[in-house]
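Entry 12.
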Amino acid sequence: MRRFFSKEKSRKEKKADFYILYTIVFAVISLFIYGCFYFNGKSLIWSHDGVPQHINALAYYGKYLRNVLKTLVIDHKIFFPMWDMHIGFGSDILTTLHYYVIGDPLTLLSVFVPEKNTEILYEILIFLRIYLAGITFSIYCFYRKNPKQATFIGSLVYIYAGWTIYASMKHPYFSNPMIYLPLVLMGIEKVYKKEKPHLFICATAVAAMSSFYFFYMISIFMVLYAAFRYFGLFRKRSVKDVFQWFLKFTGFYLVALMIAATIFLPVVMTLFGTERFQAQNYVPLFYDRIYYEKYLGCLIGENMIQWGVAGYSAVAMAGVFVIFSKRKKYTGLKLGFVLLNLFLLIPFAGHVLNGFSYVSNRWIWAYGMLIAYILVQAYPELFALQIQEKRRIFIMLLGYCVLALFSETARTERNIMAVMLLVLAVFTVVSYGNIFVQGKYLCGMIVTVLIASILLNVSYQYSYEKDYLSEFEEKGGALEALQSGPDKAIQKLEDSSVSRYDQYKTGSYVNTAMYMGTNSTSYYFSVANGNISRFFDEMYLNTPWDYHYNNLDGRTILDRLAAVKYFAIKKNGYGYVPYGYDQEAVTTKKYRIYEDEDALPLGYTYDTWIPREKYEKLSVTEKQQALLQGAVIESSSLPETDLTFDDKKADFTLEAGKGCKIKDGKIIVTKKNAKVSIGYQGEPDAEVYLVAKNLDFNAYSPRARISDRKWDSLTEYEKNTVLHEDDNWRYWKESKESAVEVSLGAVDKTIRIFTDKYNGYSGRHNFLLNMGYKNYSAGTITLTFSTPGEYTFDDLYLVCQPMDSVEKQTDRLGEESLHNIKTETNKLTGDIEVSSDKFLVFSIPYNAGFTAYVDGKKAKLVQANSMYMGVELKKGKHSIELTYCTPYVIPGMYLSVSGLFLFLMIGIFYRRPKKQRERGNQEK
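Predicted 3D structure (tokens):
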């Protein structure tokens, strides 16, 4: 240890002592972090995304890999399942789970871990990723010939910032780019030095396979880094030289993408078809004023909005002061620091770096590498600071402290403590030669302040005041939570393997069907089938997300078209049961499961069709009725459907309660939970729908909620209090969402309105709420508005949908339907007999990866009814087969093989002596 803190004499000295000390300190700090969770009875699994997505995907992937190996060992075949009916309405496995597990080399460890121990593996992987990030950062630093002490300090700054303390605990794979970035940048250094490009190609390929999302950011930063390093390394520059380097890097980059193409190509092509990344999000010119007031303090203290989780150790900022005190040195690092801070200060940069989606600074982990490396470079300068440089550091410290704590909103306890540690760190830095006369004592003091700063940030983040830990699942409870839904009971029911279930307020997690092996109507993953999203848009389904949905709102027509046979509600208390679910199939301690005996199977037939253009002109309630009468497709040889509709608009009146008023087609709400009553007179024996077209929301500030008349009656103190609240009010935050609770009798549902300021905004503003089947014709619906503001809409009306016609049309669709249905790996089979030419629709989401065979011959499979798919059948008996292969995976495999071949050729080329290579290049 003494040898570590002493001044290094040789660059070639073994690094064993470095990695021993790094491992020990990492273990101590990580145990402290883990203890914060453990002693509060918490796991490291975030309840919101961690249970339904992260650990669910890891457990699934482990089982998936074990099944692949089992098939290989027993059947001597390599067989990869590509489609799973248990994921949402049925989903591609690769493109759905890539963002979470597939492609990440570390998740391959799940193959060795029994499912029951997945939580242990999950938590180990969280810390393993952070540990490896420090290792790769140190490798980069050593390659750049930095001393061990500096590298050690920089590594701790890099891996224990706000990103890992906050973000990586919620999203474990958010640490992955921290592992890859140092290797990619080191690869760039090697290419510039005309060494082998193997590291650059391999690191880029692994990053591309691991996460398309973070790879996009890595690609941007590799370009910026290459540009900065070019001007830092070469004195003689020319356009020709720049172009040659550009071509070389582009070639290596493309080879890496080719190697990764088996995974990367299908994922990226699927991504282009999703709705989530096509929404037009709000991108302001600047952030809210409070963001800038808290900015400097938050760099070493509190978390900022829009994922600006900096929280770097105070020692890191001291390193920034040191390099800026040096004139005519470290120009590249200074410019890089200024540039990345500008990125943090301008919302448009967050928009671009987040894939031109919503504004987010999820790239801040890359800022962490810069600020950590700045400290690494600053460390040797601590032993040679001149008096003038120390004065500059002091002036920068003074200015930083004043600006960081000037605003009242920035003077939080965490920020103040961080600034105090910064003062101590700067005092330590400038004290060499006076208080600290030996380098080892200065190094020891810096490490002490660094660790204290890290532990302080950890303690504040996980404090009871922040309530961060409350968001995590109880220890050992994650997998139990996935098993606690109604799936166990549904598994035992007849036809549950070839039918779906819907639910209403069961309180269970989304995606439990994926874990349990049932078929549901719920889904929550970042990449979703765009055809499902567009169908939900057409049906005005009551969900504001395109990638997160819980049910089909109990709408009889939609349930039947989706082959929903069972419906789950909680056992205790009255639960809303939609029309048709008349028979109670099973009752457990927690749930009641009802069965619809008139449910349609996975394949049903139409004898007529509806042109897409004709369908598009219908109203939302007419569209869902049309789907029971004819198949909506582009063309067909069948007769065209003669559509009939029996939905009827209800007469209604609006009555505003206290705290709101209705004016000029707007509902103006000035108090939380203000109510509007809708009294209606409609039709009996019908489902009652509340339809809101283009429903939007704009929040009111505290001042805007008070009328001018009431304002004049307030005292000066009361006015100033309101103005103070108004001054700290954040338009961006407060205007991003609102909720309207809608109730009719025992049925209560919620419309969540997202505006373009919300991160998950999908552009959805049309909603239809099924308020249940009513055998009476009149009632009162109550709307409760959660947030003061202005609620606008193009139209608001009620529709009654009689069920008699629905029953008849459902019977007709099911008369000649698919039977003997069997689902196998990447295959679905069944038999059918039709009395005339008909169109068979599969209630499976359309995907270009499917191929249909009728009687062993390939048939034309087309998109039908917006969301589903189908084939045209001739009169007679038929055997039907659907097979699936992930779109673009085969071309991706060819590209990967080609990429590996090119990589091999590059390797052979670089095995030649350097002079011979250079001679060959000159001849070319």
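Annotation: The chain has a mean pLDDT of 92. The first helix runs from residue 2 to 5.
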